[in-house]
Amino acid sequence: METILYNKKGEPVAYLTSDFRETIYLWEGVPVGYMHEGEHVYGINGRHLGWFKDDIFYNNEGERIGFTFSTCPVSVAKRPAKGNKSFADEPRPRWSVPPSPNFGFKIAEGELSDLLKEGLVSRQKKYPGKEEPHEKKS
User: In which domain, by residue range, is 69 found?
Assistant: First the structure.
């Protein structure tokens, strides 16, 4: 079973799977995070992204940034087709948990998709923007 995560506009942005790691995928199928100890949301890169409590995703400032169908403050939009799931990297070591904020009713100004993308593992080329040099033949 999957739990769909909606942004503050009611648009489906991501989904939480029920696999052993409770992986979070962007709607396009890109793995960006996972659940830890039932409420902590971590990026695949190890960064603490927030908390998932009572079907609401809170950022590290305690602002509501993601919702399920039952907690979304607006009507939810029709779900488009999901992208194919990409292979999830092995999670990097977890960063320490920030102090628990006061979880409030304020809705975050930022977008859920942007916050989740902070959990991506960067894949940089060895030579960014350039082709890799060819070895010279003697």
Answer: 3-117
pLDDT in tens, 22-37: 999 999 999 999 999 9
Q: How far is CA 2 from CA 14, 15, 23, in A?
A: 10, 6, 10
Could you identify the residue written with the tokens 């060895």?
126
In a domain, 133, yes or no: no
Percent of the chain at pLDDT exceeding 70: 88
DSSP labels, 23-69 = EEEETTS-EEEEEETTTEEEETTS-EEEEEETTEEEETTS-EEEE-T
Q: How many domains does the chain have?
A: 1
Tokens of 23: 């992986």
